[in-house]
Write a structure and sequence with these properties.
CATH topology: TIM Barrel
Radius of gyration: 20 Å
Structural class: alpha/beta
Helix content: 25-40%
CATH superfamily: Glycoside hydrolase/deacetylase
Largest sheet: 6 strands, parallel
Shape: globular
Number of domains: 1
Length: about 290
């Protein structure tokens, strides 16, 4: 069953790089995103008690909208890693519209290369093309700098890491691999994802917004996370808060300062949780009886 339409819960927009005139000839200015900072690496174990959802390989006009709807319904931030051949040229028009929806919703976006090759096996020229061209395309389409890069398959060698560092890009890996790309049973996938999040106490979750099964289960996963957090509150335990990827960014071992809007969004989710939990536990309203004619 597809997720319901977004509800009317109050939301706080996440921080996004301001739209600006870009110097498209200078690649370094296209990676200078002040909201995420300069080169680093995210593995997903940098912080406990919080969870960041990330989605790879899109946008897909057939599946990504359902993912966006579910995230907005539950007021959960996310990061989308874009395969930029999807948003290029005339064939990418609908995908560009989805990209704009992601940006308008306050989600982070990062590059996932141009064509999704294994960069460990790429020549130096191919490596540079896949990184540089994807950043240029995404920055131009998003009209903002792009500071995040996720290697396809998580595969990258020393030459690739040096290229990312030279450009000031943060490499983003993950700690919760849902393997949704090979899942066939929606109920099992849903249970697996929330079980992994609970076991690890959070982390960076990897999913794929291009997969129909992911679009099918993501609302249920977010509902299960909310239910788990309600149980934690009832037991006087801290919830596993869904947060922006900003919470996992580091300068060496020190966490980067969070943008004000990012902190505000997390605080708003935490503050609204007791009321949402009360609604979940409230008895259903009795059905209205209509007199027979």
């Amino acid at each position: 069953m597809p997720p319901e339409a977004p509800d009317a819960r109050p939301r706080v927009a996440a921080a996004a790089a301001p739209a600006t005139a870009l110097d498209v000839k200078n690649l370094h200015t296209l990676t200078d995103d002040p909201t995420v900072g300069k080169a680093d690496r995210v593995d997903g174990d940098e912080r406990g008690g919080v969870v960041a959802f990330t989605f790879d390989d899109g946008p897909n006009p057939e599946t990504t909208p359902a993912v966006i709807d579910a995230l907005q319904k539950y007021n959960v931030p996310a990061t989308f890693f874009i395969v930029t051949q999807r948003i290029a040229g005339k064939h990418g028009e609908k995908s560009r519209e989805i990209l704009q929806r992601e940006l308008d919703a306050g989600f982070l976006v990062g590059s996932h290369s141009v064509t999704h090759p294994n960069l460990k096996r790429a020549s130096a020229d191919q490596l540079n093309r896949e990184v540089d061209a994807s950043i240029r395309t995404l920055a131009i389409q998003a009209n903002r700098p792009i500071g995040l890069f996720r290697p396809p398959y998580g595969a990258i060698n020393l030459a690739g890491r040096l290229r990312l560092k030279k450009l000031g890009l943060t490499e983003v890996q993950w700690s919760v691999d849902t393997l949704d790309w090979r899942a066939h049973n929606a109920d099992r996938l849903r249970k697996k994802v929330i079980s992994m999040i609970k076991k690890d106490g959070g982390g960076v979750v990897l999913m794929h917004d291009v997969k129909p099964i992911t679009a099918q289960v993501i609302a249920g996963v977010l509902d299960d996370l909310e239910a788990e957090n309600c149980a934690r509150l009832a037991g006087n335990r801290e919830p596993i808060l869904p947060v922006s990827l900003h919470y996992f960014l580091r300068d060496g071992k020190a966490p980067r300062e969070l943008p004000a809007a990012v902190k505000q969004r997390t605080e708003a989710y935490r503050a609204a949780l007791p009321e949402r939990c009360a609604k979940r536990s409230a008895p259903p309203e009795p059905a209205v009886q209509h007199a027979a004619k």
